[in-house]
Amino acid sequence: MTEKIKYIGAVDQAQLEAWKKKHGDIFEIIIEGHIGYLKPVDRKVMIYALTKLDITFSEGKKMNLGQMVQSGEAILQNCWIGGSEEILKKDDLFISAAMEASYLVTFKNAELKKNC
């Protein structure tokens, strides 16, 4: 039997279930022994986070990492529900968490057609 790793800021299963009941999916960010929990990104946060991204959707795809951090920062500030406060306080942990959180900005396939 493998022993479960105990992260700084970890909550018990009852708390996770309470958050799931309230928010739906819960996301974990794990960085160097610390764990943080995020609720899903809502429309308001998604729109704000997108204003922080500079992405070129072409063959020469590029992403501004500073803006990626700003996007993730918006998500962390608005979706953080618990975990190790060190993630929010220590710059090296925060930057890593923000970059990871920026991946919560996702898109569904949509199609635009002219109605003829």
Supply the key terms.
116 residues, alpha+beta, globular, two-stranded antiparallel sheet, 3-stranded antiparallel β-sheet, 5 helices, 5 strands
Can you offer a commentary on this structure?
There is one protein chain. This protein has 5 helices and 5 strands. The mean pLDDT is 86. It has a 3-stranded antiparallel sheet with strand order 1-2-5. Strands 3-4 form a two-stranded antiparallel sheet. It has helices at residues 13-23, 43-50, 65-79, 86-89, 91-101, and strands at 27-31, 34-38, 55-56, 62-63, 80-83. The protein has one domain (13-104).
Global shape: globular
Rg computed from alpha carbons, rounded to a whole number of angstroms: 17 Å
Q: How many domains is the backbone divided into? A: 1
Taking pLDDT < 50 over at least 5 consecutive residues as the criterion, the unreliable ranges are none
Count of DSSP helices?
Answer: 5
Q: Which range best describes the helical content: under 10%, 10-25%, 25-40%, 40-55%, 55-70% or over 70%?
A: 40-55%
Largest sheet: 3 strands, antiparallel
Strand order of the largest sheet: 1-2-5
Mean pLDDT, as a whole number?
86
Helix/strand class: alpha+beta
The proportion of residues in beta strands is 15-25%
Assembly context of the chains: single chain
Element string (H = helix, E = strand):
HEEHEEHEHH
